[in-house]
Amino acid sequence: MFPIKILFWTIGILNLADGILTYIGMQLQLIGEANPLMSSIWELSPYLFLCCKIALSIFLFILAANFKTKHVKTWRMILAIPLLLYLSIFAVHLTWITYALGGLR
């Protein structure tokens, strides 16, 4: 089993990657934002969107550094949900990147 700090770091990195890849994909008009909240933020400002994603990742990194609990099993199960979601989102990003790069040839 992974330590909880590693789970927080992994989710933070995947969130940051999601933000950067979504920003690139949206700027190139290759993808749309599926999350209604983040889509609304994008409509306000793409830079605000990116800042929100960066801020969330920083928050997760701070949690990783300072998180202490006696309920390790419970937190592993809780953190498994966003981890799986971000891994599936990352797979979607890899799909559109592969498609976009294939279209450049």
Task: Describe the protein in words.
The chain has helices at residues 4-27, 36-44, 46-66, 72-103. The protein has 105 residues and is an all-alpha fold. It has one domain (4-103). The chain is globular, with a radius of gyration of 15 Å. The mean pLDDT is 93.
Question: Short summary of the structure?
Answer:
By secondary structure, the protein is mainly α. 82% of the residues lie in helices and 0% in strands. The protein has one domain (4-103).
**Total domain modules:** 1
The number of strands is 0
- Our count of helices gives 4
Percent helix, as a range, is over 70%
- The span between the termini is 42 Å
The average pLDDT is: 93
Secondary structure category: mainly alpha
Tell me the fraction of residues in β-strands, as a range: under 5%
What is the subunit organization of this protein?
A: single chain
What characterizes the major β-sheet? none
Rough outline: globular
Task: Throw out a few tags for this protein.
105 residues; mainly alpha; 4 helices; 82% helix; globular
Architecture blueprint of SSEs:
Layout: H1 4-27, H2 36-44, H3 46-66, H4 72-103
